[in-house]
Design brief:
With 56 residues, the chain is mainly beta. It has one domain: N-terminal domain of TfIIb (Single Sheet). Strands 1, 2, 3, 4 and 5 form a 5-stranded antiparallel sheet that branches. A hairpin with a 4-residue loop joins β2 and β3. The radius of gyration is 10 Å and the shape is globular.
């Protein structure tokens, strides 16, 4: 199951408040500005800066 478009429309990067790019195949949300990736587990975005991983 994918994230609802309504949810994607209101989500923002918790660090810079920028837009996020949903990577459905990776189950992640990417912030291009911060170069961080936020995991999506069981269709729930994990929006914790401490748990974000750097984008390679």
């Amino acid at each position: 199951m994918a994230l609802a478009p309504q949810l994607l429309a209101i989500l923002a990067c918790p660090k810079c408040k920028g837009t996020l790019d949903y990577r459905e195949q990776d189950s992640a949300l990417d912030c291009a500005a911060c170069k961080l990736r936020y995991a999506v587990r069981d269709d729930i975005p994990v929006m914790l800066i401490d748990e974000a991983t750097p984008i390679a």
